[in-house]
Specification:
3 helices; alpha+beta; about 30% strand
Length: about 140
């Protein structure tokens, strides 16, 4: 399952730029998983992709307000890169991220087993034609 397949949660599309430099300094592919966190030192927002981090700001007042709202609410969230601008550039100047916020989170301390039967396969096939067998559905889930 790709992170961009998530359809639940409050969605925000936010155009951001690096606060400290002229670009992000490396190519970043669309649909790359990311995280946006607040710095414990000064409250600045930090974008993390893999081992790389950047201080970020919204590209304009509207996008900055969206970032501030996400930071203030501090809800569980998932984030990924929608696109970089310019696209497929090795030093993008800005990027659009999608942030999905959720009202709560469930923490299961132990492993959770779930079953997949033909009824689940049929339900998922109606949403995604390639999920036509139990084995493909399990691969998609994991």
């Amino acid at each position: 399952m790709r992170i961009s397949d998530i359809q639940r949660g409050d969605s925000s599309l936010i155009e951001i730029k690096s606060a400290n430099s002229d670009g992000f300094g490396k190519r970043i592919d669309s649909l790359t998983e990311a995280s946006v966190v607040s710095s414990e030192l000064n409250g600045d927002l930090i974008l993390r992709i893999g081992q790389d981090t950047w201080d970020i700001v919204g590209i304009n007042d509207h996008n900055q307000a969206l970032l501030n709202r996400i930071s203030e609410r501090n809800l569980p969230r998932m984030t990924w890169v929608g696109t970089t601008l310019p696209a497929k550039n090795f030093n993008p100047k800005s990027m659009v991220i999608e942030v999905r916020e959720f009202p709560s989170e469930y923490i299961w301390p132990d492993a959770v087993d779930f079953g997949v039967d033909d009824r689940i396969v049929d339900a998922m096939r109606s949403k995604r034609k390639s999920l036509d067998s139990i084995s493909r559905l399990i691969t998609w889930f994991t």
